[in-house]
Amino acid sequence: MAKIHAGDCDFLSGGTDLLPNYKCGLNAHGHVISLQHIAELKQIGRDSKGAFTIGAGVTLAEIERNTEVPRGLADCAAHVASPLLRASGTLGGNLMLDNRCHFFNQSYFWRRSLGYCLKADGDRCHVVPQINEGGKSVLNNKVCVATHSSDLAPMLIALGAEATFVGPDGKRTIKLNDFYWGDGIARFDRKPGEILSHVTLPPWAFNVRSGWKKLAPRQSIDFSVVGVAAVLELDGDKVKTLRVALGAVDTTPVLFDFSQQEKRREPGHYLFVDAYKNMPEAVGKKLDDALIETIAKHVQTQAQPKLNVPMAPDYRKKMCGVLTRRLLTELRGGGK
Amino acid sequence: MPTISGSGETKNEHQLNKGVWTDNGPPAQAPFNVIGKRVPLKDAYRKVTGEGVYADDMKFPGMLHSRILRATQPHARILRIDTSKAEALPGVRAVVTGADAANRFGVLPVSQDELSMAREKVIYNGEPVAAVAADTEEIAEQAIWLIEVEYEPLEAFLKPRDSLKDVAPELQLHDKVEKKHPNTNIHKAVDQEFGDVEGSFKGAECIVNAEFKFDGISHGFTEPHAIVAHWDADDRLQLYTPQQVPHYTHRALAKVLELPMHRIQVIRTMVGGGFGGKSDPFQHEMIASLLSMRTRRPVKLTMDREETFLTGRGRHPTEGKLAMAFDAQGKLLALDSDIIIDGGAYGSFGVVSAYYNGVLSNGPYAIPAFRYHGKRVYSNRIPSGAMRGHGSVNPRYCTETLIDMAAVKLGLDPCDIRLRNFMPSNTLTPYHKFRITSNGIREGLAEAMRRSDWKSKWGKLPYGHGIGVGCAWYISGSALPIHWNKLPQSTVHLKIDMDGGVTVHSLAADIGQGSDTMLAQCVAEVIGCSLERVHVKSATTDTAPIDLGSYSSRVTFMAGNAARKAAEEIRAKLASAASKLTGQPAQYFDLVNEEVICRTKPDVRVTFMEALHEAQADVGALVASGSYQSPPLGTQFKGSNAGLSPSYSFSAFICELKVDPETGFVQPIKIWAAHDCGRALNPLSVEGQIEGSVHMGLGQALTEQLRYRGGQLLNGNFLDYKIPTPFDTPEIEVIIVESADPEGPFGAKECGEGALAPIIPAVGNAIYDAVGVRMFEVPMTPDRVLKAIEAKKRAEAKGE
User: Fold this and answer.
1) From CA B732, how far away is CA B657, in angstroms rounded?
2) CATH architecture of B483-628
3) In-domain check, residue A297
């Protein structure tokens, strides 16, 4: 079906993100293909080879209640939206969540009043109206900075998850971190007609401490305006593994892998946040308050939230540091 | 002394309903049988089972659906409107524009400045410009975007201070502006000065002053605006609308449609929340009516959430500069306030808002010298209007914050300084002559202090943890009707036929606050019947005698009194009938629990039905009418009517909370909410009103704000407009203070609005107790709190 309606269809799982956007007429397509009755997408647990997989159709509520998944992941799922939405929203839907921007997530009337934007029906960005090109400030008709607002994506990236897709050309598995790429329109690297089958957690994800902190105006319902996922493994009091991933501060999740094993794909646009510029050494060092502070400062310095979701960017930037510090302190103490 | 009860104490009905003595003498009648009982609201089951019919649920044969085309500019001349393409779309039955309705309307006779649809220019982004009736909503939606409108943009007035400037006539949003400032966009200016303000400030031991800023907020009611208009076979207009004030809509429809009032019936549908946001006559009511008259078919118009936000009438964005003077003992000497409120595009209730922002600061404390300069301005933003606590909420935050600042300066406990300044009961305010009857604020505050353990917490909790207080008062019904006339403000009709059912006819609008239940209780109490017998018909203007509707917290006081009076008439008839049946004098009979009992010989009794049938001999159904009109109140100066009420409610709240000093997040822990409602006719309902007020007030205090980009509302939906969720709402301990008003029905006063204002300053003052910063901007969002904390740290580091 996806082949027949190529370029004019969307996949529907829980529908909690797609349908509100359709109601606002946001890039709505002529066809919606339901994935709701594919049993294979609803598996969660160890496969025949012993790898832990979570199907794309598994609901957030199921992940929240699952006792085997890393604690950070369950906690992260438990703080998405509200109980009602978690009962229908799925892993796949959360990972494919459309980016958000207060110039984009509006009614047709509203966007018409504005004159539309780059991400839907328009030709310019209202968040970053000018960009620097060859030393000159020019109209930004290229880069959309809509904010990536999925919570599970940064958490799973921190946990080193891999994503398996199936499509007309067969099956492929890539690092989830490599999946996210590009600006607020491109967002990720999904091939035409492809659907997410499942994510697989590496064995080490079950030996590390993991945690999640979310900043949102209210304690329920709201999208994150900053999300911090962290994975920590200690050797005595020394850092063995440390991975931090930020959500809701850029067009994709931003991974800070302090062991520098895995880097973020360069989206190839001018507003790219480089997590690795001046990254402090952490592996092999004692995780004392000073190191935690250094790491938190680095995360805060590199984060570049935009004024396109609730709460001011400078405030959110500051909170990247505060939440990172708090999360790492908690994880050092053994986690929640 | 007033009595205290409420959710934190035992809910033993027997204890709650003992006849109580108050500082005003014995209660109107005690003990009660129906009054004071915790009864579920009459429409509760309909609402929870889905049986309740809202306008959007209604279906009529041949019904059309309508959508409104709204302005995409904040301020622009309309050069051209072409509806031909829309008219040509199959399924479209009618298109109307501003050309089809020239008459202006508005809720206040002095501000008739709204058009059904814009004519020469649009004055806010979202203003109706044209509308379509079609076979389906989808066709109507498609059709509105086929209407071509050409605009020539004009300079937009988006900040209230811009509207103070003198401008060319074409840049004035309305023809009629404040006479004192004829070349501006000032809608109304109020200037009042009483007592020796200058002298009081000169001689004061302690002066506190500050500048405050409040974002606009919206009512956030659950049901979006939805109506059905039907020009019927009798050539009459039937308008089904969830109106708080069907009577004013009735008048406005007659004016706009140029019909005599009797050719219009307004039928109030079930109201899914109003809070003041459904109390103006509305453009969409005119539009659907015009479309129905054009097509002679029923026309439904249901707005989406964004349109409901755009229709507006929420609390005015406010900027205030206030100062207060105190003597060394903390006695309040003077209040000087200067306030600008942003009215948005229309007048709405704004003249009243302009007065209320000043005059309602003359309580709950005695103010010996008072000055107020208030301006309400027009701007190219969503129209502001009346919202729960109308006109009193934002200035209340200012004065309560200043009193707290004075307490700190003078080294006094914030509760003590308040206790020193509360006005007494049974008094007149010195200048406006507001008649204060019963006043239980001292008892309320004392009880809130006791239950919250105030004395061992205030100033003693660790950093980041605080407790604060806020007090307020509010009118219990505006004493003067909006339209000057000699009619009573409320009339209630009763009818009892041989079936024994008691029908109450009233136009008091049950908007979820429980006024139908209140009317039934008042009637059942007087005629001694069970509540189940009483059926309230309060929806249709054809059958209901006029009541001015649900605004200014007037319904319990006024319609309750009218109902009581009508019931007294029936009671006399039933007592006469019992007298006839038993031979005992009529005045000896009490009507209690479905029986008519002789007081002197209790075994001489007849049943309610026996008395009823005897009374009906030869006359048939018993009918009676009762009405209420406020007594003459107040004094004589321009604007002296504003703020007059036959009675006032009082409240004293304490809030305990935690502030995260690194993120600025405020987490309320517990609220103790003492409210003097005179008498709780239905304590269950009173608790609901107070809890609802606290929840709503917390929204304004911490998270809710209308955010704009230029003239465009950024957050016209419930994801981005942040109403607190259950997780954000703390435990609320309601303390009901009963002071028995001498005139209120069974001693009752209002409880629906006054309980909102005190929570906001209680939060602000608790933040100060927690982290030592004063919040001068509301809502107190995390970024604002954090900014204040950081500024304080920087100042301390500099050794200031």
Assistant:
1) 12
2) 2-Layer Sandwich (3.30)
3) yes
